[in-house]
Amino acid sequence: MQKPDFYAYSKCMLLSMTLENYRSFAEEVTLDLQRRSFHTLRPRLGEHWRALVLPRAAIFGANAAGKSNVIAPLGHLKTAVLSSLRNPDVLKRLYDPHRHKMGDDVVFDLEYVADDIRYRWVLTLDAQGVVSEILDANEKRSWKEVFHRTRDEIQFNKNLDIPKAARDNISEFMTPWVLTFSAWLTVKTPGRFIGGARWWIDSLLPMVTCDDEDRDTRHAWVIDIAAKHGHWLKLLKLALSTADVGVSDVRVVEEKLPEDIKRIHFIVNRESGDLEILDDPSKLGIEDIENYIKYIEFRHGEGDDAFSLSEDDESQGTRVWMDVAIPAYLALQKGSVLVIDEIDSSLHPALVRELIGYFGDPELNTNGAQLIFTTHDITLLGKHPIEALDREEVWFAEKHGVESTLVALDEFALREPHNIERRYFQGVFGAVPITEGSGLKLALESMRRKDFEASGESAE
């Protein structure tokens, strides 16, 4: 039996993202995930996307240097594609110009692959809404314009297989803060280039952040899929075993929701606007009626020495690892793009290396999954015992005054023996905080002097 070519399944990947006049980035910057050896628009005969596009991108930098601003648009754009039709405010969040260019446009230029078609989507915003929106597709050799939107007017390429009824339907939704993709996804016969919109739903996973609300939502999701699907519960156990946190077993405990709490839950859902379901009780499924409190119970030890701990008693690091590892496993399974802000938050450096190693392992990452993350963990730049990242996978965000820049490590002149970790600490690449202890010393001396004068006693 011929061994399957797993590279052939890697057909949904992020190629590049360019920002201009967004938050701390006043000028254009590009995060390019295409390998430097890839010089054509499409893979040549016998090549595949998986071999030509980087599986990881790591963004290093000091606090407030702009690391998070590089990846934030991916999360906001996904939300906007999903929701701008019913909630235009989600797109307004993306109009966030640099303070020195408040009257200028904000531009997002993204290239990605969906179902082996290369797309380029350029979105331009100003204070009034969408200035322009352009989608080009490269199916074989050259680019074809799929649509071109200016303000509320949109023109589709009539030579493509997008039915006129679909084009007319989409045109009706073109208001200032609604994306074309959001309207396009509602059409029943969208044509073969709908993958340009569906990529944001199917291939880009929800962004992982350190925000408490995001963590709670993600944790509830992890519990839910572990409760419903036995294979995900096994993967959860495997994740905890990998972390070596002393957990011998794990189970999901379900307790029925009290009626008073269930009634409050119903009211909150109704206030959230989910009226289509809640106004028609016949549409309610069993999960909407039988609500449960679900939580994870951790088992430690074996035999007579075994004991159980609730989530509240388990370490934060265990929970953080569990809630990051499961989305990573999902990305590896589906060949999705996973974006994590501050991947090292509450995680041991060994676990961070473990996680990013999954995406660089061709035997684990057979479907072209990608991991894009920000971090302060400079040990990832060292050889412990080997380098955790390829040099073309490393980027540095640095702020000069009030403007951020983004620079790739391979833009610096480096030789193989160079210790990148030490050079980073020495400031060769920038992107490190400039610490100065003399100011603190003077401030403490001043405070001690005031204490001395107030007490009238001699300070030793």
Automatic annotation (TrEMBL):
Keywords: ATP-binding, Nucleotide-binding. Pfam families: AAA_21 (PF13304). Residues 57-162, 269-381 form the ATPase AAA-type core domain. The keyword NAD does not apply. GO terms for molecular function: ATP binding; ATP hydrolysis activity. InterPro entries: ATPase_AAA_core (IPR003959), P-loop_NTPase (IPR027417). Gene3D superfamilies: P-loop containing nucleotide triphosphate hydrolases (3.40.50.300). This is ATP-binding protein. It comes from Corynebacterium canis.
